[in-house]
Design a protein that fits this description.
Elements: E1 3-4, E2 7-8, H1 9-40, H2 47-65, H3 69-90, H4 100-122, E3 138-140, E4 145-147, H5 148-170, H6 172-182, H7 184-189, H8 194-216, H9 226-241, H10 246-266, H11 274-285
Antiparallel strand pairs: 1-2, 3-4
Helix pairs in contact: 1-5, 1-8, 1-9, 1-10, 2-3, 2-4, 2-8, 2-9, 3-8, 5-6, 9-10, 9-11
């Protein structure tokens, strides 16, 4: 068996795959956070709970209504996006002129409420979600077996992330969104309904979290704690990439997932803290993050 730095190639490739899969979810969740913060200036601590609700939506659709994975990829993000619109209109819209701390406290409290409701209803143990039949089996790469579903997760998340980046950075709609963060009064003077744009943007960010939850359901156990366990790492990813930076969220999410996977091979004891160590170093050198703008 071939080795690299004394590590079997198969073990190294396996950890790289795990890192890529984790990075795919880091990227999608941090992308949603970056979109919301970039336009609303709200640090959305509810994001982890919304990710969890997306996974539960897929599980409920399958177990209660017999609706499978593919329809869940559409229904869950739309339904949770509508829920996000309701939250923005009834709660967050009242906080835009206040300090960031109020939005953080509100979304943190809301996340605890949502997690508590699901835990009270479904308990703490995870619920299994059946792997879609189309993704049964694995690709034989010679040095390792690559599960089809995990390959799909990486490819699909890349498509979603790059499409979102393109829309925000390269289209007329994206230019309106970016302009609205700088001077909403001027943008509104051109006939753009800025409040509606803000509401839909928050709904879109929540929809991204729900989409990530649906994609995570066949890999991880669907449980009320799944978002809480992930959101702290995702916030570290966003800080490293730069708050509000779309490209930074994507690149940093995938990159840190790979670094975390490699750390599990070469120094397993540090795998749970390596992202936070990197965050501290980046903040000391560049407080705005790797791709953030200095203010």
């Amino acid at each position: 068996m071939t080795e690299i730095f004394g590590i079997p190639t198969q073990a190294l490739a396996g950890q790289l795959l795990i890192g890529l899969i984790n990075g795919a979810f880091y990227a999608m969740l941090s992308l949603g956070l970056a979109v919301i913060f970039g336009l609303l200036n709200i640090i959305n601590f509810t994001h982890g709970a919304q990710y969890m609700m997306g996974a539960f939506a897929a599980w409920l659709l399958l177990s209660k209504l017999g609706i499978g994975y593919w329809w869940s990829l559409l229904i869950a993000p739309v339904a949770l996006g509508a829920f996000g619109v309701l939250i923005e209109r009834t709660m967050l819209s009242r906080l835009y002129k206040l300090d960031h701390l109020y939005g953080l406290l509100l979304t943190f409290g809301l996340a605890l409420v949502l997690q508590g409701l699901f835990q009270n209803e479904y308990g703490s143990s995870g619920q299994p979600y059946r792997l879609p039949q189309e993704f049964a089996g694995a690709f034989d790469l010679g040095f390792m077996m690559l599960p089809r579903y995990r390959a799909w997760v990486v490819v699909a998340s890349l498509i979603v992330c790059l499409t979102t980046w393109y829309v925000i950075e390269r289209t007329k709609l994206g230019s309106y969104l970016r302009a609205a963060t700088e001077n909403p009064t001027v943008v509104q003077a051109f006939g753009v309904n800025v409040p509606r744009m803000i509401t839909l943007t928050y709904g879109f960010g929540v929809g991204l979290a729900a989409l990530a939850g649906v994609m995570a359901a066949p890999i991880y156990q669907v449980s009320p704690q799944m978002g809480a366990n992930l959101i702290i790492v995702v916030f570290a990813v966003v800080v490293i990439g730069g708050m509000g930076s779309i490209g930074g969220a994507i690149l940093t999410g995938f990159g840190l997932g790979v670094i975390e996977g490699l750390t599990k091979v070469f120094y397993p004891e540090a795998s749970n803290t390596v992202i936070f160590v990197i965050m501290v170093i980046v903040l000391l050198i560049r407080p705005a993050g790797l791709f953030g703008k200095e203010r």
